[in-house]
């Protein structure tokens, strides 16, 4: 069959792809939408034509026609400072999302809801853009029922990552933060620590409270009375970890170990301990974190921390979003955590390696 010539002065259309592949434009549409019932050789010809012509599907047009756009909206919420400081956490998730999108033949639209803006206006702007097959909500938006309702009003399904409230509302992917915090606190207790401080996370994140509860349960299980002076407020940022650690080291009886509720705050604690390294309490301070971020683990001494399965969370969330967009049933997923042993924790009054 003679292939129809394509003008180089305009963008290729779906009909151009159909002509090159020798099929109908409806068949091209079925291939682009990953629908069943298309022979493998026909699917291969269509894909080859798409690549040869440099064809890019019109997502808006596909949404208006009632078909799948294969566009997933990833909605996150952050102040500029927190977004920059927690880039490693967000990058770990986003890498997982992108990898899984490629496998599923979907695209990802990252939507950032600004912390200082009107929340409902921000969500309306997200919903009024290109039509999405589904939305994935990152914390703390995953616990905001107004946001969930506004997105559900678009008709697209919503998948939440790491929510702590109203878990029956919609499908979610997460892990047991309370149990993970309990396990890490127990690890410090096993090393012999009794004066264990906790730097809690951002009060607007449900996970911060779950991690505090795990710490409290472990201490009480060990028969240790909770010292309110050893629980300090942090904001999931390195600066807040540093400030909290400096205050703890100023106590008449400083802690022998600090459990930071995320890895970035643990970096701040490590910086404070180095700054005060001539103080024996700082030199011997054991430090543990929560997240398992590679960029932080690569520091020295390597950080003992809770590993969140962030990549697996992203994969599971994308799979759930894809299933819901296709009209297939799916269930919520709770993934296991693990403890990563570094060199930042040792027995009390022992200088950790580094």
Automatic annotation (TrEMBL):
InterPro entries: HTH_LacI (IPR000843), LacI/GalR-like_sensor (IPR046335), Lambda_DNA-bd_dom_sf (IPR010982), Peripla_BP_I (IPR028082). It comes from Brevundimonas intermedia. The keyword Transcription regulation applies. SUPFAM superfamilies: lambda repressor-like DNA-binding domains, Periplasmic binding protein-like I. The lineage of its organism: Bacteria, Pseudomonadati, Pseudomonadota, Alphaproteobacteria, Caulobacterales. Residues 12-66 form the HTH lacI-type domain. CDD domains: HTH_LacI (cd01392). GO terms for molecular function: DNA-binding transcription factor activity; transcription cis-regulatory region binding. This is LacI family transcriptional regulator. Transmembrane segments: none annotated. Pfam families: LacI, Peripla_BP_3. Keywords: DNA-binding, Transcription, Transcription regulation.
């Amino acid at each position: 069959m003679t292939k129809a010539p394509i003008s180089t002065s305009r963008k290729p259309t779906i009909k151009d792809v159909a002509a090159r592949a020798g099929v109908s434009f409806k068949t091209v549409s079925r291939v682009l939408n990953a629908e069943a019932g298309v022979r493998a050789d026909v699917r291969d010809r269509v894909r080859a034509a798409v690549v040869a012509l440099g064809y890019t599907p019109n997502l808006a047009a596909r949404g208006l026609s009632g078909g799948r756009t294969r566009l997933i909206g990833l909605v996150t919420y952050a102040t500029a400072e927190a977004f920059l400081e927690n880039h490693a956490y967000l990058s770990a998730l986003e890498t997982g999302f992108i990898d899984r999108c490629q496998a599923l033949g979907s695209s990802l639209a990252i939507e950032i809801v600004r912390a200082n803006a009107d929340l409902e206006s921000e969500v309306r702007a997200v919903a009024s853009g290109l039509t999405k097959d589904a939305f994935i909500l990152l914390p703390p938006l995953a616990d905001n029922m107004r946001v969930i309702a506004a997105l559900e009003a678009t008709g697209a399904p919503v998948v939440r990552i790491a929510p702590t409230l109203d878990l029956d509302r919609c499908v979610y992917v997460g892990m047991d933060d309370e149990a993970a915090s309990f396990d890490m606190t127990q690890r410090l207790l096993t090393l012999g620590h009794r004066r264990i401080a906790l730097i809690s996370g951002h009060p607007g994140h449900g996970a911060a409270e779950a991690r505090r509860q795990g710490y409290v349960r472990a201490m009480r299980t060990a028969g240790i009375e909770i010292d309110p002076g050893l629980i300090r407020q942090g904001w999931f940022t390195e600066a807040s970890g540093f400030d909290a650690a400096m205050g703890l080291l100023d106590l008449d009886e400083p802690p022998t170990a600090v459990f930071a509720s995320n890895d970035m705050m643990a970096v701040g604690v490590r910086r404070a301990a180095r700054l005060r390294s001539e103080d024996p309490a700082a030199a011997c301070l054991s430090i543990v974190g929560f997240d398992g971020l590679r960029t932080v683990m690569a520091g020295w001494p390597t950080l003992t921390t809770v590993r969140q399965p962030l990549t697996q969370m992203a994969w599971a969330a994308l799979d759930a979003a894809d299933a819901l967009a296709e009209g297939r049933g799916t269930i919520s997923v709770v993934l296991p955590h693990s403890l990563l042993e570094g060199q930042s924790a040792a027995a009390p009054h022992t200088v950790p390696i580094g």
